Amino acid sequence: MSDEKTSASASGEKPCPECGELVRPGLVRCWNCGAFMHRSLEQKYLEMQAAPKKIYFSPLPADADIHALGEDILEDADADGDADEDDFVLSPQGYVPQTHQDAVADRKAAADAKAAPQPSEAAPGGKPSADAPPTGDAPPAVSHSVATGGDALLEIAMREELESRKRKKTRKLTGGARTASGFIIFCPYGCNIEVKEQHRGMSGKCPKCRAPFLVPVDPPDYSVSKKEAAEEESKQAAGAPGGFATWLTGQHVHTVNPLKLKLKTDSLLKDFVEKDFAFSPEKLLIVSLAKKSGGLFGGGDKKKSDAREAVTAHLREGKPLEELQGVEKLIFTADEVRQMRIVQPASSRMDSMFHGVAVFGDHRIAVQLPVNEGDPQFVSFGLMQFREFSNALAKNYGIERFGADLGIPLSDEVTTLKCHYTDTPIKALKNVEWYKADSASPTVLAGWKCESCGLAVSEDARKKEKLGGANAKGLAKAVCPKCKKKFGEHPQYTLQASAGTPSLQEPSGSGTSGAGATAETAAT
Q1: pTM higher than 0.70 for the full model?
Q2: Which positions ≥6 away from 244 have C-beta within 8 Å?
């Protein structure tokens, strides 16, 4: 580097006082950092910037004509032989072209002539005047095209603007337009492409700009589907016994005596009576199917199905609910139903009626029924039963996402992990404790996850690679194949119904792929 500096300085180059780069002789400023090569020049430049040049204005003579001055400027510009055809000269402020002045003056003169009294065309002797034209009015001083040139141009411009606005309003996109053999789509850069119906869902490249594009599938007609769904619901409601189109059978209803309540986990889990819930937009009917002697459903040996059939037959005949005999029933209006609230789980222990103790069972949901005579009543659910109950409230009473603000999973959510050995996806359930506590949603072991690096291994691949032994008892102390730390024991579960669902990604075969677990959240 020193040799290069020496050879450069020998050629006359000088180092910059700021950055040290070599600068050719004669340059005022450094080509690299812009600093001045001489301090005196820099000082002079700063003084010039601090004291800008003053602007002097000369007074305009009193008899000066600015229009004539503008014409002189234009004549000088035309007389200049060096001027090109495309050059233009700025006119002084307030300058008006002479042709336009003549046109305005001519129109004004014509208007004054029409307003003035017309002299007689004949001389006193009855002979026509020698100065008067033979026939017609006096010819104008300028042609009509020149006199009305400005108005005509303005009218044309306004008409074009109006047509342009009309075109913008009536413009229609051609995307999706039908052709003889298919329809039109757009590539990402706006090129029109004609594709066929059998190309829907496929990808290709634009023949003009080579940009990749995807042919859209035929979108469903949501308006028709919603209309059909509404009609189907109305038909079901019309044909439902008593207008109760939604029925939930075998719900656990608990009658709680506050004086005898024990604040202990699962203390009320088995203390319930099975009842059926019937929903209509106006009412909620709760019917007890407990065995009773005598009455309409007399005979203690009556089956629950027979009791339900008797209730539906009574409603189908259009009889009032008050005449329903032999069963315990509760009837709530829609406004009373909207007063129901969830007591388990609670947002906090301070807001909990049972001080945060899961008296109805761990990971179960309990809802307090509207206040009635006697001890308070509650209905408890597993996760799947509560989802049906929440959907019935939304459908009949407009109570949307009942319980979502308390952390209750109203829909299945999974995290998709990729197996380290086979690249097959592992659909690991979120909030798996809710599913394991509900017998209606059986889960199966899908895989395992490393506690250090998050590496995922499917259960089938773990057995094949014998990671943690044959039955995974030693998995907690096993060495992770990626981070070489303790693997840990973190099982991943999935729903039994979706355990055998085929994946869009085929396995790449056995053997180590080297890819870690890629987390991808999706809602099912």
Answers
A1: no
A2: 278, 279, 280, 283, 285, 315
Residue 411: partners with Cβ closer than 8 Å, 6 or more residues away: 523, 524
What is the rounded distance in angstroms from the CA atom of residue 524 to the CA atom of residue 421?
25
What does the alpha-carbon distance between residue 362 and residue 325 come to, in Å, rounded to a whole number?
Answer: 37
From-to residues of CATH 2.30.29.30 in the chain: 241-406
Cβ neighbours around 106 below 10 Å, total: 17
Q: CA 152 to CA 158: how far, in whole Å? A: 10
Smallest Cα–Cα separation from 334: which of 276, 284, 369? Answer: 284
The CATH class of 241-406 is mainly beta
> Distance between CA 138 and CA 35 in Å, rounded?
77
Dist. CA 361–CA 27, nearest whole Å: 88
Phi and psi at 274, nearest 5°, equal -75, 130
Q: Using one digit for the tens of pLDDT, what is the confidence trace for 316-327?
A: 888 888 887 767
Side-chain half-sphere CA neighbours of 52 within 13 A: 3
Q: Whose CA is closest to 475, among 453, 496, 459?
A: 459
Mapping DSSP to helix (H, G, I), strand (E, B) and coil, where does residue 489 land? coil
Query: Does residue 67 sit in helix, strand or coil?
Result: helix
**Separation CA 63–CA 363 (nearest Å):** 100
pLDDT per position as a tens digit, 121-160: 444 444 444 454 455 455 555 555 555 556 777 888 888 8
Q: Two tokens at 246?
A: 């939604």
Three-state SS at 35:
coil
